[in-house]
Amino acid sequence: MNTSEVLKIVDHTLLTQTATWEDIKTILDDGIKYETASACIPAAYVKQAAEYTEGKLPICTVIGFPNGYSTTATKVFETKDAIANGASEIDMVINIGFLKDGRYDEVEEEIRQIHEACDGKILKVIIETCLLTEEEKIKMCEIVTKAGAEFIKTSTGFSTAGATFEDVKLMHDHVGEGVKIKAAGGISSFDDAEKFMSLGADRLGTSRLVKIMKNTDNGAGSLHL
Q: What is the pTM of this model?
């Protein structure tokens, strides 16, 4: 598999708190140049980014990010606002505490409501695998499938760890038909990317692959995508 094929499934990502419009523009320009699947950016920049790219690149943003414990009503409002501003894809964070409390119906209903607010746009559900037990990960595969979201996603990139090969394989083994998998956080090489893809990842959240292409990756490595 060549690098351009890998880049076509990358959400080229910049979600750091210090990101400026100049930083975002670089992400957008690179996303267009390398034909990435989308650019994943903070919600505050979505309208500006959608106008800037003029349909040349799907704009993705994050909801309830990175902790997931906003109320459902807040997340639904965030989603509607992002879609109205031009977002093509939404990555939401589940309420991890509710999952651990066994409030599965509420977790599912929240995903369902946000999916409805997406109005036909793609929804990816971030479950933050590094904070979950294996049983909880499997349960979230079931919940995401039942709720009708398009993707289940490993990580925010802002917690204790990112995507692992084991978690992607586990998801692949347990999600229902039609649910795709996004691996995110700590993907630092094209070899990593290809391994994740071989295990079942349909989308990758990272900025480092484009940086490698531009020869600007200093090899320091960052969990923050």
A: 0.95
